[in-house]
Amino acid sequence: MSGDKNAMWSKEFLTKTRELIRRLEDSQIQPLERASCACADSIAAGRAALVFGAGHSALPCMEAFPRIGSFVGFYQIVEPAFGYNSLVVGKGGQRQMSFLERTRGYASVILSNYSLKPEDSIVIFTHSGINALPVEMASECKKLGMTTIGVTSFEHSRANTPDGATGKRLFEIVDIPIDTGAPEGDSLLEAKDGTRYASISTIASMIVMDAVVARTAQLLIERGHKPVVYPSHNVTSDVETMTAQEERMFDAYSKLQSKLLK
Hints:
By secondary structure, the chain is of the alpha/beta class.
């Protein structure tokens, strides 16, 4: 087989990924702006823009913070059970993670560890938008008066039935819904036998998260609030300056965390 033929699926995946990013740019700028303004409002008030997701939806939360080029104010409330699934079976396996994501009432248990206020906001990631945990996380945070942002696939959500107590999908509950544009089932490519391959939702969610981080930083700077940035620590020159900035970041994060934890 020729190299070109071997690369066909790779090229098709990259092409479809570029198309999805263009659709995000064309259709989601307004909700991205609203989300960024909400995050900037929270951080400028000395509070947090929380981020939550389960399974692969935990990955864009890691992209928010701690991440080089991001800054204190974005705060993960991802549970360890949802942020590490490489074991697949056995302890901490995929079965348990999927079960917990569908467990009603678990969101309120997670939130019972935090002292949250209306000034806080939260970004919730879930491709399907139908599982009990992320939907109820949004519902519980709305009860606290927080601004809720949901990053999800409208197409997948509309094609499937929600399983939470609210009977609603994430994009139907949150204040600011953002559509990743990922297809139902997530995968972009289809083989002749109908089997689908190569998921896109994580890439789309990462792009949304980084776009929000970028615009939030700009908004804070415009308001006179200089973000406390996590610097690149993998450097070999001017290490002293980097280390000092890193320590400022750790100190600022610790102070923020002391406000959030009970």
